[in-house]
Every structure is written in C-alpha cells, then in structure tokens.
C-alpha cells in the first residue's frame, strides 16, 4: 500500500541495508508524520529483497500530527516518516484523546478483524481457537478472538515471553500439541505448524503473508476435511466497511484494555535510530515488545 508518491519517506531499504534520510518540508495540504509502526515480517522480507532487487521505502503505517492543537490525527498507509495528504482516501481518522500506542495496537487488530469477518460463522461456533505466532499480528488476532467472544485461546510461539501472556484466557506453548483447535490462524507466514494443530473439519486461516514458494499438502486438506482461508486485509477491500470496522475495533480496545498494559507492549524509538531497530529484528535477540514505533517529532 506504500509507494513513491508519498513525499518524505524517511527510511529506505537499499542493497539489503537500512538508510535513514533527512526530513523534507511538508507539502501544502499534507500533515507531518508523528509516529510510524514497524510491521516486522513484511518489512524484513522487503529489506531482504533489496539485496538483489530495487530500493524500497520502508513502512506502511504512519500516524500524523494533528492539523491544529488537540485536533484529530490520520493513520495512513504511507512509508515511515512520510507526510499524509489530508485528502488521502485510504486514511483512517483518529479522534483526539486516543493514545497513539492504542492506535498502533488497534491497527494490527484490524488486520485480524478483517480476516475473521470472512469466517465469522465458523468463529462464532468454534469451541477452541488457536493463534500461531508471537508478534504484533498474533497479538492483534488474540484480541480479536476475545472481541468476538472466544474466551479461551491457545497461542503457539517460541517467543520467551509473548505479550499475550498478559491476557486472560490465553495458554501459551512453544510447539504444536496435536490436532486440537477448531479454528487455527497462522500469523507467521509459515503455515506448517498451524496445519498440524487444526482439528478434523476445522479451519486454517492464513493471516501472516506466506512465502511465495509455500505449498500446502492438498491430500491432508482433503482427508481431514479442512477449510483454508486467505486473510489478506485488502482482499475484497471496501473503504467504508474498512473504516467502520477500524472504528469498532479501536473503541473496543479503548474500553477493554488497560492503558499501562498497552504501554508495556510498545517500544518507542526516535526515527533517526530506525537502523538500530531493524538490526535488532534481524538478530538473534529481537525486542521483547511486539509494537515498535518510530517517533518523528524530534
């Protein structure tokens, strides 16, 4: 959803490296960036692709500063640090008074909400739900399960202390434990673990973006009577519905989640240090916090 048409992208991927560019003047009719949100899986894939391919601006979620003090902000799919046109039809409006960390969390929950909305009947009748992954997409998915009334959720992740341990009704295990869940959502892009967890007749949701060469064994899907659903957030994109669901998710998160807990899930880093964050993400010791925010106010 990003592209070169947004002026002022501050983080570029080039030849497999991260470059932070200087700020430029905000064009007329645009709003300056305040915070941008890193999506680790997507961005690390794009970074790796530039080793042999063209340069690419990093990022796709940016929250603007308000046009006037105390006014509303916009959340738009533009690169890190880029300005946002006030008329951008893709932008989501953020009411004043909403914490930006909560906005970032709700944006990831929206990804899950859009995917699960396509299979809402199955979710509503499921006895058990399972989420594979320990990053921000997985966290958003667990929250969306809770919003939809699935109180007990199993999470499979090797993360030593995933954020979901702070939530009620969540059990965490480091490995698959058999075909136990009616609905299993993969948030990693590697669906083999999730496939092992789906009960016969159950549903496998692909919320994380699979690698291009991923192949699911059709014989297993056939023999076990499994349904498999792609859950890209822009499949069947309908702007009014997209905006309405985000408003619903944001309101739910604001009324159900403790603000201190949300803060503990976030790491806020000055934008000029973005290269350090990507180095951590690429290394053996990734940040504990699932929500990584780049601050462009300084």
Set down the secondary structure blueprint:
Blueprint: E1 11-14, E2 17-20, E3 30-31, E4 33-37, H1 40-49, E5 56-57, E6 61-64, E7 73-76, E8 84-85, E9 92-94, H2 100-117, H3 120-125, E10 129-132, H4 136-147, E11 153-156, E12 170-173, E13 181-186, H5 192-197, E14 198-206, H6 218-224, E15 227-230, H7 239-256, H8 259-264, E16 266-270, H9 274-282, E17 291-295
Parallel strand pairs: 10-11, 10-13, 11-12, 13-14, 14-15, 16-17
Antiparallel strand pairs: 1-2, 1-5, 3-8, 4-6, 4-17, 6-7, 7-9
Helix pairs in contact: 2-4, 2-7
Task: Please give a structural write-up.
With 298 residues, the protein is of the alpha/beta class. Helices cover 31% and strands 24% of the residues. The chain has a 6-stranded mixed sheet. Helix 2 (100-117) crosses helix 4 and helix 2 (100-117) crosses helix 7. The mean pLDDT is 92.
Features:
298 residues, 6-stranded mixed sheet, globular
Strand order of the largest sheet: 9-7-6-4-17-16
Q: In sequence order, what are the helices and strands, one letter per element?
A: EEEEHEEEEEHHEHEEEHEHEHHEHE
Distance between the termini: 26 Å
Assembly state = single chain
Strand content: 15-25%
Helicity range of the residues? 25-40%
Q: What's the pLDDT, averaged over the residues?
A: 92
Number of strands: 17
Gyration radius over CA: 19 Å
Category by helix and strand content: alpha/beta
Tally of alpha and pi helices: 9
Largest sheet: 6 strands, mixed
User: Unreliable runs, pLDDT <50, ≥5 residues?
Assistant: none
The 3D shape can be described as globular
């Amino acid at each position: 959803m990003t592209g070169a048409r947004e002026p002022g992208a501050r983080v570029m991927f080039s030849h497999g490296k991260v470059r932070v560019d200087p700020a430029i003047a905000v064009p007329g009719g645009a709003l300056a960036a305040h915070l941008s949100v890193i999506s680790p899986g997507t961005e690390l894939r794009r970074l790796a692709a530039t080793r042999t391919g063209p340069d690419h601006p990093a990022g796709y979620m940016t929250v603007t500063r308000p046009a006037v003090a105390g006014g509303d902000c916009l959340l738009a799919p533009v690169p890190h640090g880029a300005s946002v046109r006030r008329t951008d039809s893709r932008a989501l409006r953020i009411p004043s008074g909403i914490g930006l960390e909560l906005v970032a969390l709700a944006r990831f929950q929206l990804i899950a909400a859009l995917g699960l909305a396509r299979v809402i009947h199955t979710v509503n009748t499921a006895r058990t739900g399972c989420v594979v992954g320990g990053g921000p997409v997985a966290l958003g998915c667990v929250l969306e399960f809770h919003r939809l009334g699935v109180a007990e959720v199993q999470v499979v992740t090797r993360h030593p202390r995933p954020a979901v341990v702070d939530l009620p009704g969540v059990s965490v295990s480091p490995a698959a434990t058999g075909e136990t869940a009616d609905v299993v959502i993969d948030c990693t892009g590697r669906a083999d673990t999730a496939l092992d967890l789906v009960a016969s007749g159950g549903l496998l949701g692909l919320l994380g973006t699979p690698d291009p060469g991923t192949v699911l064994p059709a014989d297993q899907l056939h023999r076990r009577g499994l349904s498999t659903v792609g859950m890209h957030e822009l499949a069947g994109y309908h702007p009014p519905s997209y905006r309405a669901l985000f408003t619903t998710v944001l309101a739910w998160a604001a009324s159900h989640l403790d603000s201190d807990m949300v803060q503990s899930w976030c790491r806020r880093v000055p934008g000029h240090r973005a290269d350090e964050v990507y180095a951590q993400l690429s290394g053996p010791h990734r940040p504990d916090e699932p929500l990584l925010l780049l601050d462009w106010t300084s």
